[in-house]
Amino acid sequence: MEKKQSRMKRALKLRSKIKTLSATRLSIHKTPQHMYAQVISNDGATTLVSAATTQIEIKATLKNTGNIEAAALVGKFIAEKALAAGVTEVAFDRSGFKYHGRVKALADAAREAGLKF
Question: In this structure, is the dihedral angle defined by the CA atoms of residues 102, 108, 112 and 114, taken in order, positive or negative?
């Protein structure tokens, strides 16, 4: 369980830094088959918007939901929904996952769609 404990340690460090900023955060979670993203309010109690590869409109356009293309599509959808909800700037909470592969693809797609972080 060493790998999970390391990830949780990184996540705790990241979230404590974001909490001091008191910023709206873009939180992600990944599993081998799916990618999930949420925009969470400053107080941490309310989810403003969310997107995932399990949603019908995203899943219908994909052949496989566990790859970089799927993560990029989730990033694009979450940015569009956040901008529609009036959120333009967020802090990126990667939940302790290393910044490469699907995590990086999601972040880059969200930036390209107009979300600032």
Answer: positive
